[in-house]
Amino acid sequence: MPPAKRFKVAICGAGIGGLTAAVALSQYPDIDVEIFEGASKLAEVGAGIGIFPRPWEIIRRLGLEADLLKSTEIKPKEGPVTSFRYRKSDQPHGLDFYTLITQGNLMTFHRADFQQVLLKKIPRSYRIHCGKRLRSYSQRLNGSVDLLFEDGTTYSCDVLIGADGVKSAVRASLCGEKARWAQSEGRKAEAAAIMSCVEPEWSGTNAYRALIPAEKLRARYPNHRVFTQPTQYLGKGGHVIAYPISHGRLINFVAFKTQQHLEGTKFNGQWVCPGDISEFASSFQTWEPEVQALMDCVDKPLRWAIHTVKSLGSFVSGRVAVIGDAAHAHAPYQGSGAGQAIEDAYMIATVLGHPQTTRETLAHALSVYDHVRRPIAHNVHERARLNGQYFSLHFDGIDFDTLSGNQLRAKLQLLSQTFTKNWEWAWTTSIQSSVYDALRLLEPDSL
């Protein structure tokens, strides 16, 4: 006989964060879960994703490792591992200047493969509803959360998890709710600050993503380094990243075109849409031959106008919480967007699944999630922003074009030391300390 249900959780969004939350919650059979996805069918938009050792620890805990390893040629390693190779490439002859060494390796996947593994782990008792885009929610005095969808249908739950991405409707409702409370108490400036977090901000950078068939690149450049070595090609005003996925059959390619002075301005146009090589190729036309070869093999790139979310004062309002990009969308320059969503999902499931969490203590449990996760997520948000500047050679006022020889190498070495120090949390720290903090705060004497 199935256990009596403690409470009912609704998850808005069936991307990496939402599905990981569902998988993590499935460890607790007395929690009822339903998933609502705005798209008419489940289909991950995007190409490759990377998972560093810190979130990979969660993958293992959730029993996802074996199935995920079937979809990649890469095997997890421990100890010092060669990661990305770095080249200064905005010149006719590229300059190799650094190899990133991590503790444990970066695991790379096709996003759709990753999603399929998560879907296989979702219990049959969980229902996934497609074509259900949230319009708003309201919280009742009795504790229930009422959801209103764009098609006019409704649903009631005890907890709402917003995993609905950078344009999150859950975040918009959460901010509106908090702003109204602040306004009612005469805190007008605070209310305005809260509402300023609803709309994402353009970072000033567009990313052009594509999957290149390895055979196509091999015909163009037989011994290209990206077949065996994930590489980042850096230069003024942009950079390119490329690495193999899907058992080496595809090369995940991303070109970043950065206009630093436009950070925080409004982007006019579709944020995610089919692009054209002509939109960015001219920015890289003087770059080294390895980059030109990659560009020549790009067909039908997808343009992503990279938007971020301003730092929220809280990821939680009552019995509603946001995770992943809905909470803290950041620039992708630390390969940690998926990893941060996975951490959020695991931690929110940990606090909700704790034996001390009941329908009466849900708000406290979510406040623990906020207390533990928000400072870390905001820290990663700023670190990712800084790495984006470093990768486009915007560093310490240095004009790299005026340098050569040993002087250039010395400055590039300083650059590499700086972005490595800024990034090493992803492979030198563990989520376990956050778990300990959360468990301590959930004990009865902390209420």
Q: In brief, what are we looking at here?
A:
This protein is of the alpha/beta class and 447 residues long. It is built from 14 helices and 19 strands. A hairpin with a 5-residue loop joins strand 8 (134-139) and strand 9.
SSE topology:
Elements: E1 7-12, H1 16-25, E2 31-37, E3 48-51, H2 53-61, H3 65-69, E4 80-88, E5 95-103, E6 107-110, H4 111-121, E7 127-130, E8 134-139, E9 145-149, E10 154-157, E11 159-162, H5 169-184, H6 188-195, E12 201-213, H7 214-220, E13 231-235, E14 238-245, E15 250-258, E16 272-274, H8 289-296, E17 302-308, E18 316-317, E19 320-322, H9 325-328, H10 337-353, H11 362-391, H12 405-423, H13 425-428, H14 432-442
Helix pairs in contact: 1-4, 1-10, 2-10, 5-6, 10-11, 11-12, 11-14
Commentary on this structure:
It is a single chain. This protein is of the alpha/beta class and 447 residues long. The chain has helices at 16-25, 53-61, 65-69, 111-121, 169-184, 188-195, 214-220, 289-296, 325-328, 337-353, 362-391, 405-423, 425-428, 432-442, and strands at residues 7-12, 31-37, 48-51, 80-88, 95-103, 107-110, 127-130, 134-139, 145-149, 154-157, 159-162, 201-213, 231-235, 238-245, 250-258, 272-274, 302-308, 316-317, 320-322. The protein has an 8-stranded mixed sheet. A 6-stranded mixed sheet has the order 7-2-1-11-19-18, with helices on both faces. Strand 1, helix 1 and strand 2 (31-37) form a beta-alpha-beta unit. Helix 5 (169-184) runs antiparallel to helix 6 and helix 10 (337-353) runs antiparallel to helix 11 (362-391).
